[in-house]
Amino acid sequence: xxxxxxxxxxxxxxxxxxxxxxxxxxxxxxxxxxxxxxxxxxxxxxxxxxxxxxxxxxxxxxxxxxxxxxxxxxxxxxxxxxxxxxxxxxxxxxxxxxxxxxxxxxxxxxxxxxxxxxxxxxxxxxxxxxxxxxxxxxxxxxxxxxxxxxxxxxxxxxxxxxxxxxxxxxxxxxxxxxxxxxxxxxxxxxxxxxxxxxxxxxxxxxxxxxxxxxxxxxxxxxxxxxxx
Length: 228
Prior knowledge:
Elements (H helix, E strand, L loop, with lengths): L12 E7 L4 E9 L3 E8 L5 E8 H7 L2 H10 L2 E4 L10 E5 L7 E7 L2 H20 L9 H43 L8 H4 L32
Antiparallel strand pairs: 1-2, 2-3, 3-4, 4-7, 5-6, 6-7
Keywords: Coiled coil
């Protein structure tokens, strides 16, 4: 993701934090609009207790990129710190990116008992509304998970086939370009070996010239007569 990602990617994130230090479990929710980001934290206990805080877009971006915060939620890289279990109304600190060299700490203020009860019902309502989109299933069964896995696998296969087709098309276009270039360039036909040599004119033998060597005169042989 880009560091200029919209705050909308932080909308409706939810995570369970198990804190062994206090032997407690928390539910942390992330809410976002175009201009602000809100963390809501609920303690799973007999007493309904909730904490929360909101930051503006500019404040968040001065601390970290939006995608970094989202990755911390998705990967469960969160920790509860500076919390006094016995003090009502005390602020609580949640730290993200605990495994990095630059962890992000956020201070949350505790809500009153009435607000906490209202918040718990609101979260339960949102969970129920979301479940209605999945055949009113609060916890997806094995068949639902298997169906989603098949859909994801088919989607991966389709993307793989599309990439293969794209590569083949690119190779075909290259071959067509080479073939067109070969047709446009037509080198002159090669001459036969006999045609490449210059024709040497053989002088005709004139009268009085040797047939074997027309450039030389014929040697005349005269008969000798002997007197008795």
